[in-house]
Structure formats: structure tokens, C-alpha cells
């Protein structure tokens, strides 16, 4: 498990991280969310050890991380750092060798990854000849080529079309299914909602919410319900104690006194559906940041 405890960091007088703690568990995809400038990249750089924290610790498998752990990590930095003029396959295999793989293993791993990322036919092209989305996939290959034990990916889905997102998702899920903890930042909340098991949301350098995606959503479901009836649901606002949140013809979203609303609806005629409203990650995000 990757454990982040009490991390703080300032740049000059500007405190950008304060008491950041979370876990990235084996086999789980952890989405790291926050508005622009909230401190995601700074946190990930500290996790990787490329930036020092001013307080707190980062541990991997119970040991505080140090340079000896570098080969265990697969890192996709925010500032993408590959060589535009180098051929895709040569570049990825070379990175594999830099991480200690022998030539045959590096090449085999490169070929398998390029195939999984649907880049096999671009293997002999120079990076600069690829579209931005395909260059992004090459960056992902670069982070994965040495079969790292833990993945830290800064915005791996930015710039990908929906089909490419699926391709990359499959590749990352495969790693997670093999027990690799995956931490990734993203602004694409719909993707995070589908993909991640756990979520960490930071706001202005502090943890705003964290936990399993499902628990986070359920725990914030609160007292909100949706009812759909046969005809206009405007009467819901007249039920004593109710707070009407939204009304759209036969559909009403409201808070409190669910039993009374349901009983009134049954008395009036057919109820099409009656469900608690579980907030989306998008709604939780907007509420906590
Ligand atoms: N090297 C640096 N020197 C000074 N300030 C920095 C430095 N790196 C980051 N910051 C500041 O730290 C804060 C957090 O930045 P960071 O890049 O971690 O945010 P982020 O959540 O990754 O944002 P984004 O979503 O826009 O990528 C910002 O206010 C940024 O200006």
C-alpha cells in the first residue's frame, strides 16, 4: 500500500499543501481530484520523491520512500518529457532499459504495451509525427514499460477521445487487477466516476473528501428523493414538511418526509418510481471544493 501522511509544502510564503493524508490500496484505482491549482501535481511529485515535502511522510509497503523505490514506480508527469524526434518503439524500449530491463524484455514489454494501446502500427514513427492523443498514449506506455509495482499518473486521460479513453482504461484496469495501486489525477469526472474505486478530493491544498467512491456517494445521499408519478407532480410542494428541490412535470425531487409524500402519491394514483437520489461525483466535487 502507498501511504501519504500529513504532507505539507510551501513555495515561498505560499502554503500549497496542508496535512494531506490518504492511502492508495493495492488493486484499486484511486482518482485524485481538485480544481486547478489545488495541489494535485505537487502532491504527486512529492509521492514520487521528485519534490521534497516540508512535513509528513510517504511510505510504500511500510517503508518511507527513498531513491531505492524509484524503479518500483511508474510515473506519468504533468510535463510530458519524451523525445519528439525518437521513434516510438525505440523510445519506450530504451526507457525500459533505463529502468533495468534487459534488451529482450524491454522490447517484448514495449511491443505488448503498444499493441494493448493500439499503437502497434505507429511503432516505427517518430513521436512528433503522432497526433497529440497518440502521443499521450505513448506517454502512458513510457510509465508502464518496466511493469512498475505502483502507478502515479498525472492527467492520463487528458486529450484522449472517448475510444482512446476506453483503450487506456483497459490497460490501467489490467494493472490494477494484478494488484497494482493506481493513483491518477483527472478533471474528467465522468471518467473518474466510472473508473475509480477510491476518490481523494483536495481543495486549496487540503483534503476535502476521501474514501471509496460508493461510500462517498451513499454517505452524501442525505434526505433527497425523486418521485415520478402519472401526471403533474406539483402537489408535492403542498405536503406538510416537504422541501421541493426540483419539479419537472410528473417528476419531483424533494427533501424530507418521504413516507408522507409516498402515501400521498399512492392515494392519488399510480407511482411510477420512487428512489433516493445519490449524488454524482460531479455534484460532490462541486459541493466540497
Ligand atoms: N515550483 C513552484 N513554484 C511556485 N509555486 C508553485 C510551484 N509548483 C506549484 N506551485 C503552486 O502550487 C499550487 C498548486 O499547484 P499544482 O500544480 O500542484 O496544482 P494542480 O492541482 O496540479 O493544478 P492543475 O489542475 O491546474 O494541474 C499552485 O498555486 C501553484 O501555482
TrEMBL record:
Gene Ontology CC terms, in alphabetical order: plasma membrane
Membrane topology: Peripheral membrane protein
Residue span(s) of domain ABC transporter: 2-229
GO terms, biological process: response to antibiotic
PROSITE patterns, sorted: ABC_TRANSPORTER_1 (PS00211), ABC_TRANSPORTER_2 (PS50893)
Record keywords: Antibiotic resistance, ATP-binding, Nucleotide-binding, Transport
Molecular-function GO terms, alphabetical: ATP binding; ATP hydrolysis activity
Subcellular localization(s) per the UniProt record: Cell membrane
Entry coiled-coil feature ranges: none
Pfam families (alphabetical): ABC_tran, DrrA1-3_C
SMART domains named among the record's database cross-references: AAA (SM00382)
Entry's family note: Belongs to the ABC transporter superfamily.
Name of protein: ABC-2 type transport system ATP-binding protein
Organism (species): Lentzea fradiae
Amino acid at each position: 500500500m502507498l501511504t501519504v501522511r500529513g504532507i505539507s509544502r510551501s513555495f515561498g510564503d505560499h502554503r500549497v499543501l496542508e496535512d494531506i493524508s490518504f492511502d492508495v490500496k493495492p488493486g484499486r484505482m484511486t482518482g485524485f481530484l481538485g480544481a486547478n491549482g489545488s495541489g494535485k501535481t505537487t502532491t504527486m511529485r512529492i509521492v514520487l520523491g521528485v519534490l521534497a515535502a516540508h512535513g509528513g511522510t510517504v511510505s510504500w509497503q511500510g517503508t518511507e520512500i527513498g531513491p531505492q523505490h524509484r524503479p518500483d514506480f511508474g510515473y506519468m508527469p504533468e510535463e510530458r518529457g519524451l523525445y519528439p524526434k525518437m521513434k516510438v518503439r525505440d523510445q519506450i524500449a530504451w526507457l525500459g532499459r533505463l529502468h533495468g530491463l534487459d534488451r529482450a524484455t524491454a522490447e517484448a514489454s514495449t511491443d505488448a504495451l503498444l499493441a494493448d494501446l493500439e499503437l502497434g502500427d505507429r511503432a516505427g514513427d517518430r513521436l512528433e509525427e503522432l497526433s497529440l492523443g497518440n502521443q499521450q498514449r505513448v506517454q502512458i506506455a513510457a510509465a508502464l514499460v518496466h511493469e512498475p509495482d505502483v502507478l502515479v499518473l498525472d492527467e492520463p486521460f487528458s486529450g484522449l477521445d472517448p475510444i482512446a479513453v476506453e483503450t487506456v482504461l483497459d490497460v490501467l484496469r489490467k494493472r490494477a487487477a494484478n494488484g497494482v495501486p493506481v493513483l491518477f489525477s483527472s478533471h474528467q469526472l465522468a471518467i473518474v466516476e466510472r473508473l475509480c474505486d477510491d476518490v481523494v478530493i483536495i481543495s486549496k491544498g487540503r483534503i476535502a473528501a476521501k474514501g471509496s467512491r460508493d461510500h462517498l456517494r451513499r454517505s452524501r445521499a442525505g434526505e433527497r428523493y425523486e418521485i415520478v408519478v402519472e401526471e403533474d407532480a406539483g402537489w408535492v410542494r403542498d405536503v406538510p414538511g416537504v422541501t421541493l428541490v426540483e419539479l419537472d412535470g410528473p417528476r419531483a425531487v424533494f427533501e424530507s418526509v418521504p413516507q408522507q409524500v409516498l402515501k400521498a402519491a399512492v392515494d392519488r394514483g399510480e407511482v411510477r418510481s420512487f428512489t433516493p437520489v445519490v449524488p454524482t461525483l460531479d455534484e460532490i466535487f462541486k459541493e466540497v471544493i
